[in-house]
Design brief:
With 65 residues, the chain is mainly α. Helices cover 85% and strands 0% of the residues.
Length: 65
């Protein structure tokens, strides 16, 4: 593209699409855990550990990029 403004605008769409997938996954995971807690259920310790590892891994990838 010859127009830098248009190039940036065109790049925004794919980046936004890529970011929506992990955001939706984390949001659903959070809703599931909160649903368990709101029903008075205990979340499995292993599920919580894996959720935390997933968050940490994703956050570290964002910071290293």
């Amino acid at each position: 593209m010859d127009d830098p403004r248009e190039a940036v605008h065109a790049a925004d769409g794919p980046v936004a699409d890529v970011m929506q997938t992990p955001a939706a996954t984390f949001s659903q995971h959070k809703k599931d855990l909160e649903g368990q807690w709101n029903r008075g259920e205990e979340a499995d310790t292993e599920d919580l550990r894996m959720a935390l590892r997933t968050y940490r891994s994703f956050f570290n990838r964002l910071l290293s990029g």
